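Exercise 7. Predict the joint structure of the components listed below.
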Amino acid sequence: MNGAAVSVQSDAADLIEKEKRKRRTKNVLKGILFLLPSIVFFSIFLFYPMIRTVYLSFFLTNASGAPTVFVGMDNFIQIFSAPLFLNSLKTTFLFVLYTVPGTIVISLFLAVIANEKLRGIGVFRTIFSSTMGISVAAASVFWMFLFHPTMGWLNQFLSIFGMEAIGWLTDPKWALLSVSLSTIWMNIGFTFLILLGGLQSIDSYLYESADIDGAGYFYKLRRITVPMLSPTLFFVVTVTLINAFQTFGQVDMLTRGGPQNETNVIVYSIYRDAFVNYQYGTASAQAVILFAIILGLTLLQFKLGERKVHYQ
Amino acid sequence: MIMPLYKKVVLYLLLSVSAFFIFAPAIMALVMSFMPSEQILTGTIIPDSLTLDHYRQAFERFPLLSYLTNSLIVSLLIMAGQLLLSSLAAYAFVFLEFKGRDALFFLFIATMMIPFEASIIPNFQTIRDMNLLNTYTGLSLPFFAMAFGTFLLRQTFKQIPKELKEASEIAGMGDLKFYLTVVLPVAKTSLVTLGVYGFLSAWNMYLWPLLATTDDSVRTVQIGLKQLQSQEQLNEWGVIMAGGIIVVLPTLILLFLGQKKLQKGLTEGALK
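Solution:
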């Protein structure tokens, strides 16, 4: 009697176990089916090309980009001993240095003043986020005129104060700064929107209790706003940084890498080597460097971010 | 809390000055696109008469209408592809438990560390060798899979109670049916947000359309604008600005309509 009950029980347990196993196998199949489209597309258009880029960087290629002669590290040695690529690296880092802090500081300022509850604040928010909807090509066209040597608003503005006209895009001293200025403007919309979202998610209770304690505006900004905003800030810095390394459109439209290669950022340099000079080998070597930089930065940011960022 | 008057005045002042600087380039372009050429050349800032000539010329001299159609088709294709693939993947990560899921999730995170710009050479060769240069497919295919979209939708799907899924299983509802009839309708808001974001990014794309189009047949409006700018060297700034305004109008309207949702959706997807 007892034995029968046990065996029924163990039969049932067996059955459940079997059923579970069956379901898990079924789930693997289903899971793969649901994920397959993404995995296939990632493989064809992201993982394979990345591996292929590394492969190509060890070869000389023909005009259509097929590898011909294995040259080992020669492509890397070549780009690193050529002043052109070193200059392009320097330009890229300068560009990052100009645009990332500029974008963050201005957007943070705009987000803070647009976070107040005032009548008509929606209009200002819309205006501040508007540059997000303006494409690189259109923004470049707008700024191209602003930078125009004689008719452009910037030089007209300078002439009001009797200052000399500046060759914004033609003077090697100014070109990179000018491209950076226009880039900051393009970045503001997105960065502002994300930072504003971060500010709005801070609990108003924190401010209220600070008010009771008689804390001043800047004290609250430093002790509540910035720490509570740090995850958002961290995200925004990462995105802006990575975007800055991937800049191409405004350089192509505004300066074509000139004058004297002063605005020849790394993606533009890759583009020119590969699709204008058909040097796919050295272009791939440069792409590998770009990949390494972005990978390194992302990892570093995550490591630093974990320690410094204040999570709620 | 009532804000003291002086603080209000300072804030409005700061807001207005900032808004002026942010909006100035776009307003300038808008004004110039309606300003007669003579006035542009003399450096006028506020015109005394308006004209539609620049818009007429932009459409007459350039196949702008076909560029606009091309951009619309490509952006809609990319948007649809991203919504489909992201929602399918997010579904698997939330509702299906199976071995190796975490490894696959890590694979999705890893894709965010590979910049598209660094893999552009083999991508160009792939599309070229598949004879997809100058096709809508070639322009949109590389952007269908999207880690960010998957993460964003995963966040939303997670909020759907697990009991609902269990109940559906008891009722004998398959996963595909559950995905189509329960998950997608519930996540409508997030899908719209992601759709708007995908459309905006696709419409504004520059490098890939530049490489993947060699003739006018499927050329997008962004590359059309580049051509307009590089071919109009006769100081026809009015025509160029008219082109610029036409390019930004659809995305600006979309942004103004969906700004609140977009902000909420992007912040959530970015931070969780």
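Discussion. The first helix of chain B runs from residue 5 to 34.
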